[in-house]
Design a protein that fits this description.
Blueprint (H helix, E strand, L loop, with lengths): L9 E4 L11 H11 L3 E4 L6 H16 L5 E4 L2 H7 L3 E4 L6 H8 L4 E6 L2 H9 L4 E5 L16 H12 L5 E5 L4 H10 L11 E4 L1 H4 L4 H21 L17 H18 L2 E5 L5 H11 L2 E3 L4 H7 L5 E5 L6 H13 L4 E4 L7 H13 L4 E4 L1 H7 L6 E3 L2 E3 L6 H12 L2 E4 L4 E4 L4 E4 L12 H23 L14 H20 L7 H14 L2 H7 L2 E3 L2
Parallel strand pairs: 1-2, 1-8, 2-3, 3-4, 4-5, 5-6, 6-7, 7-8, 9-10, 9-11, 11-12, 12-13, 13-16
Antiparallel strand pairs: 14-15, 16-17, 17-18, 18-19
Helix pairs in contact: 1-2, 1-9, 2-3, 5-6, 6-7, 7-9, 7-13, 10-17, 10-18, 10-20, 11-17, 11-19, 12-13, 13-14, 17-18, 18-19
Bound molecules: the ligand Cc1ncc(COP(=O)(O)OP(=O)(O)O)c(N)n1 and 4-methyl-5-hydroxyethylthiazole phosphate.
The site of ligand LCLJCK34 has 17 residues, from strand 1, strand 5, strand 6 and strand 7.
GO molecular function, one term: ATP binding
Protein name: Hydroxyethylthiazole kinase
Keywords: ATP-binding, Kinase, Magnesium, Metal-binding, Nucleotide-binding, Thiamine biosynthesis, Transferase
Length: 537
């Protein structure tokens, strides 16, 4: 026997107890194979040995007709009796070295891991693949006393596996709506290693239509893997290499175009923001040519999601967490950009916990913050916070901070301050426009987030208008989000410069009104004339 070459893309773990009432197990299995399941594990928690062998034998007969390999959960004796391709074992089952002696060199051995140390051990002991989990809570296994990994935790483990040749699947609570988030947000921050597939029980087994369920998962995983394989830069967050000319002049031309797109398309920008700035944020949105909607109720935000161009989540007064969870999840499902503004995240433990909770439910497209906020997200101690403000002069190497965090979180990072730094994990931009009056009005950072949201919506529409179809399932969000972030920053700061120079502006009060006027009157040409951008890498 030679070791079977396995496609881990959609790995069905069986569970007869989860079938819909009246659905036959073998019928459901066959339908899921027709839908594109690529690997099957027979998992029988209550069957005695004879029944387990019978189910495994019949499962293998069905899978053989589709050329899909079968593995056995836990029971080496059942694997040997039926002659399957290998086994899957847990941390408390037979240790890998002993299992290897029993199953021989050509059988596949997979092991469950949920910690970095377990990943190291799996490498040392020669596992063929690992099942990483549980990613999220699940009703299919009792994982109540275990720490949920979330996509970020999966990424930390993938980093260790990078370059070892060990394959990986994630397991636990994975369903079509959170799959794109998982695939993208778990790309490992250092080695750019990504999942080889997903292991699924209920999304397929509990479905009345397992063929359709399996097909939808397979399409998404397949498309993700295909695009990752062809990327010139494996760290690229937005998979399709954009047509953007990556020079300062090219970027400025792109910003000018996005200003026109906002005015032409008037995208609806859903903002869940704080009570201090809600009116200013709505006015800034209108001034630039977009359309604001400030809804917070969980039911309302879910209904709104298909219609919006982008979502801004700013947790400044942190009172709408339920709505933020729902709105973000729906935005991921509908592939709408999310701008996350973690206001004063470092100031209280409640804010830190809320951020962890939100980000394990949905994947942001752009995170914007001041030095204290970005420092807290990056777990850096270099910059402290006082309420919503940063204390101290900032990071010694802000470009490195934004780049590393962009890689870690698989999204665009914007660090605001006297100069602003923007990175997609590959490119780092420094933008140095603005005026000191911006520090004298409340909600300045929040309004920047709003504008970035307007341009994120525009960037997505711009991209979609240039493609015939919405065919690329591998992308969580489409469009040039680095350019969107830069546009929001530039437009706000250039308008501030123009406003501050007006003879009628005498201080923060008149400046605030003038700022809205100058955003309203701002032309792409003025932005081009004044833009101060440097490309750091
Ligand atoms: C692919 C995959 N990953 C993880 C598991 C869980 O295995 P284990 O920890 O042994 O728990 P049980 O499945 O035995 O309850 C798995 N089965 N498959
Ligand atoms: C077996 C197992 N191991 C970790 S989570 C899990 C259950 C996965 O089931 P589901 O896909 O229904 O969440």
């Amino acid at each position: 026997m030679v070791k079977v070459d396995i496609d881990y893309s959609v790995y069905l773990v069986t569970g007869r107890e989860f079938l819909p009432p009246g659905k036959d197990y073998y019928e459901s299995l066959e339908e899921s194979l027709q839908g594109g399941v690529t690997l099957v594990q027979v998992r029988e928690k209550d069957a005695d040995t004879g029944e387990f062998i019978e189910v495994a034998r019949r499962t293998k007969d069905v899978c053989d007709r589709y050329n899909v390999p079968v593995l056995i959960n836990d029971r080496i004796d059942v694997h040997l009796a039926v002659g399957t391709a290998g086994i899957h074992i847990g941390q408390t089952d037979c240790p890998i070295p002993l299992a290897r002696q029993l199953v021989g060199p050509d059988a596949i051995i997979g092991i469950s891991i949920g910690k970095v140390e377990e990943a190291h051990k799996a490498i040392d002991q020669g596992a063929d693949y690992v099942g990483i989990g549980a990613v999220w809570p699940t009703g299919s296994k009792d994982v109540r006393n275990k720490k949920m990994l979330g996509p970020e935790g999966v990424g930390e483990i993938l980093d260790i596996l990078g370059g070892t040749g060990i394959k990986s699947v994630a397991i636990g609570g994975i369903h079509l709506p959170n799959l794109a988030q998982l695939l993208h947000a778990s790309i490992s921050p250092i080695s750019a290693n990504h999942l080889d597939g997903i292991a699924i029980i209920s999304d397929i087994v509990a479905s009345e239509t397992p063929k359709e369920a399996a097909r939808a998962l397979r399409d998404l995983v397949g498309s993700f893997k295909r695009v990752r394989k062809t990327l010139p830069d494996p760290m690229a967050i937005f998979g399709i290499p954009t047509k953007r000319d990556l020079t300062v002049d090219g970027l400025v031309t792109g910003v000018m175009e996005l200003i026109r797109v906002v005015k032409r398309e008037t995208p609806l920008v859903h903002q869940m923001t704080n009570t201090v700035v809600v009116n200013d944020s709505a006015n800034v949105t209108l001034a630039i040519g977009a359309s604001p909607i400030m809804s917070t109720h969980p039911r309302d935000v879910a209904d709104l999601s298909p219609a919006i161009g982008a979502l801004l989540i700013n947790f400044g007064t942190i009172s709408d967490k339920e709505g933020m969870l729902v709105a973000g999840r729906q935005a991921n499902v509908n592939r709408k950009p999310i701008v996350f503004d973690p206001v004063a995240i470092g100031a209280t433990s409640y804010r830190r916990e809320t951020s962890v909770d939100l980000l394990s439910h949905w994947q942001p497209t752009i995170i914007k913050g001041n030095a204290a906020e970005i420092g807290a997200m990056a777990k850096s101690t270099e910059v402290a916070s006082r309420g919503v403000d940063s204390v101290g002069s900032g990071f010694s190497d802000p470009g490195a901070v934004v780049k590393a965090l962009a890689r870690k979180r698989a999204c665009i990072i914007v660090l605001t301050g006297e100069s602003d730094y923007i990175s997609d994990g590959s490119v780092v931009l420094k933008a140095s426009n603005g005026h000191s009056y911006l520090g004298s009005i409340t909600g300045s950072g929040c309004m920047t987030g709003t504008l970035i949201g307007c341009f994120a919506a525009a960037a997505r529409l711009d991209y979609l208008s240039k493609k015939e179809a919405y065919e690329d399932l591998s992308q969580l969000v489409q469009g040039d989000m680095l350019l969107a972030a830069l546009s929001g920053i530039l437009v706000y700061n250039v308008a501030a410069e123009v406003a501050a120079e007006r003879p009628d502006v005498k201080g923060p009060g008149t400046f605030r009104a003038a700022l809205i006027d100058e955003l309203y009157n701002l032309t792409p040409e003025t932005v081009k004339e004044r833009a101060k951008i440097t490309m750091l890498s």
